[in-house]
Structure to design on (655 residues):
């Protein structure tokens, strides 16, 4: 066996499928094996591999043991003379493996090898070549000095910026996204160090390759597309701690004396500094727009109150100070809370959610207003007028943010774009007639580059550049991988990067559009998943329903308790649902996820939800032996709050 490719996957099914297709294209003519180690994904990755790639050697873990340990599981069984560790969010060129193996044959001192990596926007990834960490290099990176002097040999040593990106060079660190090692070198280095859960294992491995007497090389004569970070989210405290703690593990392992202590101290400071900055940035980012909404709403309520007091009560001081500075802010907070619960602050922004959320908040205000004593009923008109103002001002704020191109606030980001689809007529028809309709994508202009325009779809760079010269308003280019090579995609994205053009890929035989510079759905991937129960808004709506309905059932218990068929469970279920131990509606199968026996039968697990007092089959209590699997999948994939309301209503006296 010449080559073994090892891919560790975690919840990036569509990226993995696309990656595997490129891998098998690149292994044609090479005696190769492919291993996929899945770290307990819940997005159907395992079943996808089994259905579409039966030739893959699959290891399906029941937990997430980490990147290093998962790789080692496959490496122990690999038979190849060369072993490649490859990320699932990558695409390789057809010549990549040939080029790498040929380089090994001509350079017997090569132990490890990496290639030039390009991200989804055509930018060179500096992680393609790196230097070993040290107190000095880490300081330059953490302090930001590396950005000021990226090509300085000393200051830019972390990314070895003094080396030409397009020249073969010996480097220190090989990236874990594409790390090839020879069998001979592996025998001397041993497996990946499993002390690293994620990050740092590639640095450690690269260090040991050099300690074994081999060299690590950076090979830019072939390229891969790396969507960088699709398997991990880099804004969380967990990422910050895991990343920098890996550097501390490396320091304790290979540095000694004061050097190790100083480096560890620097790392601990970096963790707290980075965490504090990230927390502050996220806090400001989350509160800025709600603060604008509150300020605009309060200004409107205040103006309406003063006008109403002047012309209706004929006394500008008619309403007490308590009403102005306590009751009015409370009104606004209730509406903003309702908007948040409805998803009004989720990205991408949708005006409908804002209107619905604030409208529900205003309705709640009017209901509670009618229940208040006479001395607390200040003015129903102010509530109505103020609510209308709040909704209108929130919409205006979103429009202004959209005009200013603030990230995440561009209204209907897919509409009104000019798109260029690169592919044959059949793929053009598939994208425009199937994918656009399915994903709800609208365009003001769609152009096709097809065989009528170009003779060879394997190299379309010049043709696209010519078209761009004649029509400069193209917003997005969609590549159909059935017709266009990965090499051509990389060439185009590299040439056009930085010009404000978006790039997406329509993979062969896959009903998705993939691109790394979009944030409208999980994994920054365009898929029609807004109705999925794992969607943040749907989870929030489900939890809100559980809380509100539990409170109502407890308040109405003097009336509803006596007709119950299972009286001993009534209060217990209401309390457990109220405090989040259960939900009113769950899957048919027991347990929070699935019964172990069924887990073995179905490797396409459903999103995790809490165990339910009632099950999806309780919507049809009189049907014997319903298809529970189908009901659960329909509930998970097409969730509607009305389903929970219906099931609870039908079973109201069976709590």
């Amino acid at each position: 066996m010449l080559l073994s490719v090892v891919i560790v996957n975690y919840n990036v099914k569509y990226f993995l499928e696309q990656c595997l297709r490129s891998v098998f294209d690149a292994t044609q003519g090479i005696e190769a094996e492919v291993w996929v180690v899945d770290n307990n994904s819940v997005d159907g990755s395992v079943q996808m591999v089994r259905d579409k790639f039966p030739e893959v050697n699959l290891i399906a873990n029941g937990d997430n043991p980490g990147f290093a340990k998962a790789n080692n599981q496959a490496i122990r069984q690999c038979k190849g003379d060369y072993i490649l560790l490859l990320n699932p969010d990558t695409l390789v060129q057809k010549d990549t493996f040939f080029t790498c193996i040929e380089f090994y044959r001509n350079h017997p001192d090569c132990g490890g090898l990496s290639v030039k990596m390009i991200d989804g926007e055509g930018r060179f990834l500096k992680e393609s070549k790196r230097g070993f960490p040290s107190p000095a290099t880490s300081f330059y990176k953490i302090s930001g000095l590396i950005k000021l002097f990226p090509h300085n040999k000393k200051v830019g040593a972390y990314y070895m910026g003094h080396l030409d990106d397009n020249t073969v060079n010996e480097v220190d660190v090989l990236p874990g996204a594409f790390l090839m090692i020879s069998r001979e070198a592996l025998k001397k280095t041993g497996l990946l160090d499993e002390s690293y859960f994620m990050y740092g294992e590639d640095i450690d491995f690269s260090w040991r390759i050099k300690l074994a007497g081999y060299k690590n090389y950076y090979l830019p004569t072939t390229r891969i597309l790396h969507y960088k970070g699709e398997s991990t989210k880099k804004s969380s405290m967990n990422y910050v701690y895991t990343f920098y703690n890996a550097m501390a593990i490396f320091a304790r392992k290979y540095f000694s004396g004061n050097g190790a202590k100083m480096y560890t101290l620097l790392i601990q400071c970096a963790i707290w500094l980075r965490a504090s900055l990230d927390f502050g940035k996220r806090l400001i980012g989350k509160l800025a727009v709600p603060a604008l909404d509150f300020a605009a709403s309060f200004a409107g309520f205040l103006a309406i109150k003063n006008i109403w007091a002047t012309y209706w009560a004929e006394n500008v001081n008619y309403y007490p100070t308590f009403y102005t500075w306590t009751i009015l802010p409370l009104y606004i907070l209730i509406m903003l809370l309702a908007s948040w619960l409805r998803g009004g602050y989720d990205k991408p922004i949708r005006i409908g959610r804002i209107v619905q959320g604030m409208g529900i908040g205003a309705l709640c205000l009017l209901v509670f207003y009618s229940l208040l004593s006479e001395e607390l009923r200040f003015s129903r008109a102010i509530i109505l007028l103020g609510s209308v103002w709040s909704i209108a001002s929130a919409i205006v704020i979103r429009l202004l943010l959209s005009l200013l191109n603030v990230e995440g606030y561009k209204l209907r980001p897919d509409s009104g774009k000019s798109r260029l689809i690169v592919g044959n007529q059949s793929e053009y028809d598939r994208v425009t007639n199937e994918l656009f309709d399915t994903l709800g994508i609208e365009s003001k202009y769609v152009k096709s580059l097809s065989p009528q325009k170009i003779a060879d779809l394997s190299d379309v760079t010049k043709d696209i550049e010519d078209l761009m010269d004649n029509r400069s308003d193209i917003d997005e280019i969609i590549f159909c991988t059935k017709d266009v090579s990965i090499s051509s995609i990389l060439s185009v994205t590299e040439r056009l990067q930085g010009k404000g053009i978006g790039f997406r890929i329509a993979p062969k035989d896959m009903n998705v559009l993939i691109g790394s510079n979009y944030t409208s759905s999980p994994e920054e991937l365009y898929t029609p998943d807004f109705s999925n129960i794992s969607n943040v808004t749907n989870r929030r709506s489900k939890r809100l329903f559980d809380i509100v309905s539990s409170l109502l059932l407890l308040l109405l218990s003097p009336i509803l308790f006596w007709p119950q068929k299972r009286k001993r469970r009534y209060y217990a279920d209401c309390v457990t649902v109220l405090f989040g131990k259960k939900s009113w509606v769950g899957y048919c199968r027991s347990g929070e996820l699935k019964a172990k026996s069924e887990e073995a039968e179905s490797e396409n697990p459903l999103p995790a939800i809490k165990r339910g007092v009632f099950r999806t089959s309780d919507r049809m209590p009189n049907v014997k032996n319903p298809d529970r699997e189908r009901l659960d999948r329909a509930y998970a994939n097409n969730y509607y709050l009305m389903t929970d309301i219906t099931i609870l209503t039908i079973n109201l006296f069976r709590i």
